[in-house]
Amino acid sequence: MCNPMGRMSPYPVQHLVAHIYYTSPLLQANHINTPLASVHLSTLSFSQQISRTTLNHSWISMATPMVEDNFEDDQLSSMTTEDITRASRLLDNEIRILKEELQRTNLELDSFREKIKENQEKIKLNKQLPYLVGNIVEITAGENGSYFFLFVAWFLHHIFLGGFQVLLVLGLLGMGSQRGILEMNPEEEAEEDGANIDLDSQRKGKCVVLKTSTRQTIFLPVVGLVDPDTLKPGDLVGVNKDSYLILDTLPSEYDSRVKAMEVDEKPTEDYNDIQELVEAIVLPMTHKERFQKLGVRPPKGVLLYGPPGTGKTLMARACAAQTNATFLKLAGPQLVQMFIGDGAKLVRDAFQLAKEKSPCIIFIDEIDAIGTKRFDSEVSGDREVQRTMLELLNQLDGFSSDDRIKVIAATNRADILDPALMRSGRLDRKIEFPHPTEEARARILQIHSRKMNVHPDVNFEELARSTDDFNGAQLKAVCVEAGMLALRRDATEVNHEDFNEGIIQVQAKKKASLNYYA
């Protein structure tokens, strides 16, 4: 089959005619019947009509299977040349209408893009600091949000909606009108043509009630730029000072003194330094599944007690290093504050910070400053210390032992601690740190001198026998003194005599401060 330009047409004329017959609704409604001979006479005019249209081969090829399956030969003879010409004109009209719709759609798309760009600029302008700080009070479902808002506003009369006080709206109405508003269902109202539609009444999202730093309670039918599913009562948010829309969530507010207690650098001590593994701290954090398999609840906390300088703080730092946990160090005297409630607030903020930084180890050094036995006292300072200890007991009961938070307390006077602090369920495990034995003293001397250039003839066992009743800190001072003596005589190695002289100087405790570098 040839077209008017003399080239072969890739599709038979019957397929083209059949496609027009089945796709044009106006042609189907006419029920046209013509003989089969007229199809061959209309080949050139039909090809000319097709050339004027914007039909492509893919559009025709999609119709080919349908024609081969559904079109019968007796229906091909039902169209004349005039009918085919009329069908082609109808098809041209349909194509023109589609082009106009496409052009209109492109114009609407460009308009929407301009609006999106304009709204993004407005959002960028509204998100400029400073924010108005607010707290989430309540989150309600959007379906009943309007009723909840009117119900609360009826009683409180100081709710703001978009900057306008609700009292001005409900105060103009009587009790019956207010009840009618509360019972009104906006979904049941008939929508008239051209009528304005209240989008807030048809909104299905969540609504938020928040209290700002200016002591205003705001109801937001539209939350803002934050996903309402991520919000919960008590969250701190930043809102726009004019529209009160929530722009961003703010981090939890902590006391600056609590933030200063966090040790930024990870501890580097390991168990070669302290020669002991504490199951109560490390295993529940590194092998939690073993406790769950046996159904054993690990201890919440550990109390380290013993003479000064025996390595209690070193033990806590080593546990934090082995578990890759955050190390939060609190000092007992630091929790004793002048104003009422400050010490309890420090304890509360410290435990809240530990939950967010989990896994975390809270180390409370010198806990006897706040954990002494309670007694009757008329001095306000003693009562404030007892309030701080009661808050510590409350926080120890407030978190589960399955949480990745462990408490390590250290003291030199375990005999004066309150029994409520020592009972099981709070500080479950008690570990005593006595003075090291002779074997332990030799090992401690080796550990503190391992980075020093020590002469091979140094006998650490003999040095350990000479350091009876020395604690770990004093043994470290012996190693430092031995190194300083070797430095003064310009030696390249630390020999046995330097260690003996260091032991004598530490025992004497009468040397000048300039000669002692501990």
What does this structure look like?
By secondary structure, the protein is of the alpha/beta class. It has four domains: 1-126, no CATH class; 132-185 and 202-249, no CATH class; 257-432, Rossmann fold, CATH 3.40.50; 438-515, Helicase, Ruva Protein, domain 3. It is 46% helix and 12% strand. It has 22 helices and 13 strands. It has helices at 13-23, 25-30, 37-41, 43-52, 57-70, 73-76, 81-126, 145-156, 167-170, 175-183, 256-261, 271-274, 282-286, 288-294, 312-322, 342-356, 380-398, 419-422, 438-448, 460-465, 472-488, 496-508, and strands spanning 132-140, 159-161, 164-165, 207-212, 217-220, 236-239, 246-249, 262-263, 301-305, 326-331, 360-365, 405-411, 429-432. The strands form two sheets. A seven-stranded mixed β-sheet has the order 3-2-5-4-1-6-7. Strands 8-10-11-12-9-13 form a six-stranded mixed β-sheet, sandwiched between helices. A hairpin with a 2-residue loop joins strand 2 (159-161) and strand 3. The longest helix is centred in the N-terminal third of the chain and has 46 residues, at 81-126. It is elongated. Residues 1-72, 154-159, 161-191 and 510-518 have low confidence and may be disordered.
